[in-house]
Structures are given as C-alpha cells and as structure tokens.
Amino acid sequence: ASLATGPRQNSSIFYEIRTYDIKPSRMKEFVEMVNKYLHLRTAHSELVGFWSAELGAMNKVLHIWKYDSFAQRTAVRHALANDRDWQGKLLSSVLPLTEKQHNEVAYLVPWCQLGKPPKEGGVYEWVTFQMKPGGPALWGQSFQAAVNAHINTGYSKLIGVFHTEYGLLNTVHVLWWNESADHRAAGRHKAHEDARVVAAVRDSVRFLESQQNMLLIPLQCSPLK
C-alpha cells in the first residue's frame, strides 16, 4: 500500500527558484550586467526565466533554473566554481550589487506542465500561497480546483505551479502570464463576479495561511518573455 501523502511528479526534474534583493541605487547596473553576461551561466544549465519585480516588491529579481536531478545540480555548481570566465565577468560584478539571496527547490505539481505564453511582450504574475501544514493530501484538491476556476475564465495564461521541497514547506508558487497589467486587472474584476471562481476560492481558502504576489517584467535575457 502506498503511504504517500498526495500525488507526486514521476519525473526527477526540479526547479531552483532564486530571489535576490538588489541595492536600490544599483538595480539598473545589475540588470545591464545580467543581460550582457548571463550566457556564461546558461552555458551550464537551463534557465526557465529571469524577471524583475515591478509591483508587490521593489529592487528584487527572480529567476528559475531547471535541473534533471540533484546530481546534475551538484555537477553544475562544481563547474561554475571552476569557470573563471563566469566568475570574472558576471559573478564578481553582480555580487557587490546584491543585498540578499534566497533560494528554494520546488517541483511542478503533478497536474501541471510548464507552459509558455502565446506571445512575447506581456507581464507575469508570481503568486505565493502559504498553505496549512499537511501537504497536498490536505489542500491539494481544493487548490487545484481554485487554479482551474481561474484558468476557465480565460483572462490569464497559466505557466506553472510549483510546490516547495526545500525552503518554507507547504508553499505553492503560481506563475501566470497576462497581455498587460490592465488586462490582468480587468480579468480579476470579471473573475470576482464569476460564481465558479468564488465557490472554488471559498473552498480553498480554508487551507490558506497567507498569500503574496508580484508583477514581474522579464529581462531581455529571459527565455520566457
């Protein structure tokens, strides 16, 4: 008999989510350096996306890296430690501009595949939900229903739903894409009047401790734009 507390991804693929707080006076310089030299880092492993926060936080960047296994990540970190080009041109330049670094390891929830926006030029929304302890066995079904209810309104494109494995547990990050901030605002107003959304959210919120969101703008070097 299975003792698992909820459905899991069968794949070993995971995602490292990194958020950096940048010195306010150095944000422009940080972005310029990353756009210019990030290819030295992506030569070692796959970048999903790289964004700066526009609303909900200030002077913060968020980037997501994909790994096939923990062994691959270990090998990548070892290679980076010996990559003088990357250390000299990018790492040594951006570290003095950075105030704080934070990372998490997360898996895609089993009912979600990583998506792509229908076109370039939009904005992203990163929504973080802190759920009650107990894992997906407790809140997974209700949370999925709430996400699906928003998808069904059609105003926003789901990119990915990530559930933490390392970091603050019972945390779920949802990444959405919208054509613009105004399009997102109009869609939210419409969703608030949708009975399907209201019912699903009321059920899911029973398991919610807190939530926070950021409006993100992709950097020029970001694969997701």
From TrEMBL:
It comes from the Eukaryota. GO terms for biological process: mitophagy. GO terms for cellular component: mitochondrion. InterPro entries: Dimeric_a/b-barrel, NIPSNAP, NipSnap_domain. Residues 15-113, 124-223 form the NIPSNAP domain. It holds the Pfam family NIPSNAP. Belongs to the NipSnap family. PANTHER family: NIPSNAP-RELATED (PTHR21017), PROTEIN NIPSNAP HOMOLOG 3B (PTHR21017:SF19). This is Protein NipSnap 3A.
